[in-house]
Every structure is written in C-alpha cells, then in structure tokens.
Amino acid sequence: MKRIYLDHNATTPVHPEVKEAMLPYYEEFFGNASSVHSYGREAREAIDVAREQVAELIGASSPTEIVFTSGGTESDNHAIKGTAYFQVNKKGNHIIISPIEHHAVENTCEYLEKKGFEVTHLKVDKYGVIDLQSLEDAIKDTTILISVMHANNEVGTIQPLAEVGKIAKERGIILHTDAVQSVGKIPVDVNDLGVDLLSLSGHKIYGPKGIGALYIRKGTRIDSLLHGGHHERNRRAGTENVPGIVGLGKAAELAKKNLESERKHLWMLTEKLRVGIQEKIEFVRQNGPIESRLPGTLNFSFEFIEGEGLILSLDMHGICVSTGSACTSGSLEPSHVLTAMGLSAEIAHGSVRFSLGRDNTEEEIDYVLEVLPNVVNRLRAMSPLYADRVKMRA
C-alpha cells in the first residue's frame, strides 16, 4: 500500500543534503566546540557557518543575534520567560498574546500567570487574524512583551506582524514571534517585521529534530533560561549539539535557496486539494483564509463526523494527516485555535489539517481526492445527525 504524508506542519523528513552535511560531525569531526584543540576548533567553525546560514535566512543583521536551542519550544520559553524575568522589576508584568498561539507560548504564559504575571489574550476574527485596534487598546504602562505567532500551525493564517511591530516599537515594547511554521515557507525578515525575538525549529524545514534557534535582536536584554557554562555568549548554557546545528544551518541554506520554487509548488497542490474537496464533498467548510495563509496548509471541518475517526480511516488507506482538535493528544477538548475563531465545539471536533511538503505530487493529491469522499460518506452513514439532515433537505 502506498503511503502519502500530508502532515508536514507536524514534522518534515530530513533533506538528503542535510543528512549528508551532518554525518561527518558524528564521526570524524566529533569535538566539543568549547575545546581549544583542533577537534574543538573544527566544531566551532562549523557552528559559526551554521549561525551565518540561519541569520541569512531570517535577515538578521549579525550572526551573533542567533542563539541555538533544542527547538521551538525552548526558544519560545526562553523568549517569554527571559523577557518576563528581566523586565518585571524594571517596567512591569503585563504580557499580550493572541488566543491561537502554539501551546509552547500559551502554556508558558499560563505558568507565568501563576507566578503573578498578567496575561491578556487578544481576540481574532473568523479567519484567525488579530485585530490591531484591540492590540493597541490592550497595551498598558506595565506591558513588557507582545507575543504573536507569524503563521498559525493549524489553519495557516498569517498575521499582520509588520503592523504589530510598528505598534510595539512606538510603545517601547518587546515583540516576540513564534515563526516555527513560517520560516522557510514564506519570506521572513526580522527587520521588515520589526520583531525583537523570533523562534524557529529545524525539523519544520527538513532539518533534524532537537535543534532550533532564538533570534535576539542586538540590544534586547533577556534573562537566560539555562545556567551553567559560558556557551552561546552566555545566553544558553550546555554543550552545543554540533551535528544538529550543522543540520539546521544546511536546512536554512536550502530553504532560502528553494523558497520561491517550493512555495509555488505547494500553492499549486494546495489549491488542487482545496477545490477538489469543496467540489466533491458537501457539508464541509474551510477554516482560515483562502489567500493569506501558509502555502501547503489546509484545514477543513467535515460535519457529522469526528476528525479523529477520519484520520484513522485515511491512515488505513495510507494517507497521513492530522486533526485540528486535540483529541489525538488524549484531550477531549476541541482545538483552541478553531474555537477562538468562532467554531462550535462540534464543528471543531470534525476538523482535519492537511499540510503538504516539497515531495508531494499531483498524483498523490488525485489519490486523496479519490479516497477522501468515500471515507467521509462511510463515516457519515453511521451518524443519525447526518441522516436527519438528509431527510430535512429531501
């Protein structure tokens, strides 16, 4: 049975060139980058090259603004907690976030609330876009941080981050963005966006898992999250993951090189899938905007069925997707992203995310569009609510 992977927002396969770049640093060049002998210097030189590659991908002014981490979650925690603890005795304790942030941001802020910080959640419209006026209205004299993700992982909505950056700069507030989903998929320039802190992750851009980076604009002061040695210019203690860093650097280089061609490819496939679903299946709604979203990301709610059941059924046909609800993580709660956008819990539970990648083909999309309607119809045949709706229409 063929297998079709349409869950690239969850993780991506390691690019062959990334794997090839990493292998020597497991074998021949295995030194500790903090060592002063030749093995250490070779490792340090590799890290310096990777730092430049990541800096170039996001338009950083200097490679020294890049701090390597274990991934997007650590980067988010470092940015938010680091800012909170540095600023609390200097300016205030108020943080503003969107209601559709990744749990790495949401749960970090929930933790800080228990420590006495105040967190304001902005509202979003039916497409998941924040309202800029509500942002301005939420700002207080004690506001120390605004954290708004660049693009949403579930529905692909791209936020007006440059406008947020202007507001933050005018009010002297640090701006962080979780750009884990946008980096490598759409142009990301930290200066155009006006962000002070930016999180990214290697395994979302065909790099290895367990490696990420935090961009810290020169002059932005935050506390360290980890304490120990003097690694990463005293900003992140711990022996550097040299193979992972090399892999992230190579993935960043490839992402920058192939950005436009892959973006066009993903838009073409995504549109084929979007139009096909809407033509072949009734009682379905697209979640998120049609245009201002990530290439390769589609989220649909299929009425009268559970998203988890649809995922499992598609998996039996070799099609790997994910649900927009949190059912698969062991929670019965619907997606906080979809409910924030105004969907009912019932509709949100029937949501599925399709996230395409560089290796997907038109033939694969044709197969999905052949299988999906039959799977949906079979699941709906077991729903008394669907039967009632059909009777009402008749």
Describe how the helices and strands are arranged:
Elements: E1 4-5, H1 16-22, H2 38-58, E2 66-69, H3 72-87, E3 94-97, H4 103-114, E4 118-121, H5 132-138, E5 143-147, H6 161-171, E6 174-178, H7 190-193, E7 197-201, E8 212-216, H8 231-234, H9 242-280, E9 284-286, E10 297-302, H10 307-316, E11 319-320, E12 322-323, H11 336-340, H12 345-349, E13 351-355, H13 362-380, H14 384-393
Parallel strand pairs: 1-11, 3-4, 3-5, 5-6, 6-7
Antiparallel strand pairs: 2-8, 7-8, 9-10, 10-13, 12-13
Can you offer a commentary on this structure?
With 394 residues, this protein is α/β, with parallel strands linked by helices. The chain has 14 helices and 13 strands. Helix 1 (16-22) packs antiparallel against helix 9 (242-280) and helix 10 packs across helix 13 (362-380). It has 2 domains: 4-10 and 259-393, Aspartate Aminotransferase, domain 1; 16-255, Type I PLP-dependent aspartate aminotransferase-like (Major domain) (Aspartate Aminotransferase, domain 2, 3-Layer(aba) Sandwich), CATH 3.40.640.10.
